[in-house]
């Protein structure tokens, strides 16, 4: 028997108990809770922004670069967006106790596969405080107790947000203990959390590769890997080149720091010259790392093996000319992380083959990879984007936060 | 980089490659393969039975008890049952490339959540050679490469069965490499297998608690825990006592060694005397371990805390008198393993509450827990019965052996 940190152990125990109560609430009751949380975020806006200011000052004093400070920052608009996300979750159908399948055996026994909450879901995340509210909302609506472990850089902001959520729940007559928050930035508590098998049902890490790898390596609790996205755009010989350029610009430049941004461009050799020659002008500010064939058309840094593997998360694009669709698919197979992949083509067979053969959470024909996102998909936010195949794949919304239970109703059937 | 056993590493590499080809076969092509496998099992029956005889002799020489030798034994009838199971799998709908959900975003982008094979599925199992055929059939039909690691006690039988499957596949023009078989009983190969993250997509252990715990403790590859079943029957005050007795006898005596057999009987105090007094006569041959209140009505061994936790897998039953439904649910909560639980009642509210509140893969009202089984549920066999909540819960059939992929079809949509 491991000796867990006493506070964490008792918090999780209470969380598990209260999660059972939460799991039996009706959709209406849960929505009333979420509504009260919106009101609490509203009335505590000043406190929250003040707490966030402390985090920002601390980050700036520590010399954190401004793009990261920005990820941490809250303002009235961002709080409004959080409340909007809560309203979207309220509007979603209750995911609990519905049946995808009901059937009757030859002996008359009726079986239903019903959705039920997982129990306790743990989220380990970095920086952005809006994850605090998103993760709570989706976990709560799906009837799960949620245990949050944010980053120490956002500790004040998260503490204020969780405080508001707790008061909102209380106002709705729901135990605030359904949302646990590790208000302690000792790293060993993450490890304790990862070892709480049987106490926590699922842990979702949201953050950089270092965090994800640490979690996957050390977890005894089931986990879902999220987020690492080495995403490709393949421009087919029969692709519309101006459409391809718009999709490329959107994928690379609109928000380069996110996991569904493009990292590598693959171009069919037949359209390579026409397409690649335009890159320097169209992708202003983007550094290109190109293969040898790319260098025939424009002057670029020479791409190395490391470039094909890299998730730049920055204004850098790797470019490779391929001889056909199979070579493009092979490249994606070898270097992709199974996140989001796109083709631009007007050829029906190429579109079909790309969709069937590329092994990723989301595969796009003639559209931007930037859509791989719980909000964009209409899930009212997301718990992360799974890049594994087991349990969930792609943006995790309410459906990915429930499990199932077979219910059998009989009249004395035996075998 | 770990250095895997060379043979295993290259087998898994080939398996992954061939699994991709398998994943794109049509349902018809896969069914033709399964049909050829049936024919091969037919024509190689003598070789298989001879190989099995060697295993049986080895087991008897080693002094293995007869009930375990029986689990290992094959005969013409059991081979017929295997072929029957293959025919059932042929009759099932192809689980690959169907969509549970297709919708269109406001910008016109159409999304479909499509089913796709997991890739490579590993099964680590003990004793029964029919698992070899079942696991292959379900894995194959769902488009997955399957890697089998059976027990050393069944090595000859498994080798002969896999040989027949390989020849059947070859006759159908399908690469036999889609079924990998670890023909080597060194224990360290199991550990190697558990560490092949990115090469094997899912590992399912089927066997005793020791095996399951070893797998869960050591795996880096995602796993599904299966099989440990401490199952309860609760006889409510408003239950039909003769129905309850039939369900109890079926659950305890029909096949005590399986995971869906009953281990503990909980009886409401109002019917305890009437029900418990009949136990000795009705459950002939079953040893009873009872609580203090049970001892008021019949003479039994005193039940200890260990009895409530025990999966006897034998003709032993723990008996406890409870004061009401909540106490029964609390007992199940504390000692159950989340496998199969049953209530016998004619009270509507009690039936509802039991189904909602008991946290298990399968919850029965007025029926035997013995039905929790892929075959009985109509899944054409099973890959194991998941007792975890993540990915799959309950009997794992074709639906649990696929993952999903979002397909987006657009006309140039960007964010």
TrEMBL record, chains A, B:
Gene3D superfamilies: Aldehyde Dehydrogenase, Chain A, domain 1, Aldehyde Dehydrogenase, Chain A, domain 2. It is found in: Cytoplasm. It comes from the Bacteria. Keywords: Amino-acid biosynthesis, Cytoplasm, NADP, Oxidoreductase, Proline biosynthesis. It catalyses: L-glutamate 5-semialdehyde + phosphate + NADP(+) = L-glutamyl 5-phosphate + NADPH + H(+). GO terms for cellular component: cytoplasm. Residues 9-287, 308-406 form the Aldehyde dehydrogenase domain. GO terms for biological process: L-proline biosynthetic process. Pathway: Amino-acid biosynthesis; L-proline biosynthesis; L-glutamate 5-semialdehyde from L-glutamate: step 2/2. Its EC number is 1.2.1.41. Coiled coil: none annotated. Its main location: cytoplasm. InterPro entries: Ald_DH/histidinol_DH, Ald_DH_C, Ald_DH_N, Aldehyde_DH_dom, G-glutamylP_reductase_CS, Glu-5-SA_DH, GPR_dom. One of its GO terms (molecular function) is NADP binding. It holds the Pfam family Aldedh. Belongs to the gamma-glutamyl phosphate reductase family. Catalyzes the NADPH-dependent reduction of L-glutamate 5-phosphate into L-glutamate 5-semialdehyde and phosphate. The product spontaneously undergoes cyclization to form 1-pyrroline-5-carboxylate. This is Gamma-glutamyl phosphate reductase. It comes from Isachenkonia alkalipeptolytica. The lineage of its organism: Bacteria, Bacillati, Bacillota, Clostridia, Eubacteriales. The gene is proA.
């Amino acid at each position: 028997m491991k000796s867990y940190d006493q506070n964490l152990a008792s918090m999780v125990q209470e969380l598990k108990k209260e999660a059972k109560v939460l799991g039996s609430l009706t959709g209406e009751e849960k929505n009333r809770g979420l509504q009260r949380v919106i009101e609490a975020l509203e009335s505590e806006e000043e406190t929250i922004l003040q707490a966030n200011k402390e985090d920002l000052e601390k980050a700036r004093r520590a010399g954190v670069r401004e793009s990261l400070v920005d990820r941490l920052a809250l303002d009235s608009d961002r709080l409004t967006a959080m409340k909007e996300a809560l309203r979207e979750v309220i509007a979603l159908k209750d995911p609990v106790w519905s049946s995808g399948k009901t059937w009757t055996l030859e002996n008359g026994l009726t079986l239903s596969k019903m959705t039920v909450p997982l129990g306790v879901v743990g989220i380990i995340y970095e920086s952005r405080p809006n994850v605090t509210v998103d993760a709570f909302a989706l976990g709560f609506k799906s009837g799960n107790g949620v245990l949050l472990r944010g980053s120490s850089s956002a500790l004040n902001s998260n503490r204020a947000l969780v405080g508001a959520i707790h008061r909102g729940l209380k106002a709705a007559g729901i135990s605030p203990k359904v949302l646990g928050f590790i208000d302690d930035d000792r790293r060993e508590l993450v490890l304790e959390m990862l070892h709480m098998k049987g106490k926590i049902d699922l842990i979702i890490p949201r953050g950089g590769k270092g965090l994800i790898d640490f979690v996957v390596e050390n977890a005894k609790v089931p986990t879902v890997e999220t987020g690492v996205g080495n995403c490709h755009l393949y421009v087919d010989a029969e692709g519309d080149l101006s459409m391809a350029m718009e999709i490329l610009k959107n994928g690379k430049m609109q928000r380069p720091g996110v996991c569904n941004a493009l990292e590598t461009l693959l171009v069919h050799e037949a359209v390579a010259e026409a397409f690649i020659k335009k890159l320097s002008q169209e992708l202003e500010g983007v550094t290109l790392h190109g293969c040898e064939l790319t260098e025939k058309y424009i002057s670029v840094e020479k791409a190395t093996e490391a470039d094909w593997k890299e998730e730049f998360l920055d204004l850098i694009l790797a470019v490779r000319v391929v001889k056909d669709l199979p070579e493009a698919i092979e490249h994606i197979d070898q270097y992709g992380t199974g996140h989001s992949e796109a083709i631009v083509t007007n050829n029906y067979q190429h579109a079909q083959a790309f969709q069937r053969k590329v092994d990723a959470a989301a595969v796009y024909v003639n559209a931007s990879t930037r859509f791989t996102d719980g909000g964009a998909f209409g899930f009212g936010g997301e718990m992360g984007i799974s890049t594994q195949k087991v349990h969930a794949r792609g943006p995790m919304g309410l459906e990915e936060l429930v499990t199932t239970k077979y219910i059998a109703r009989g009249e004395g059937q035996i075998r």
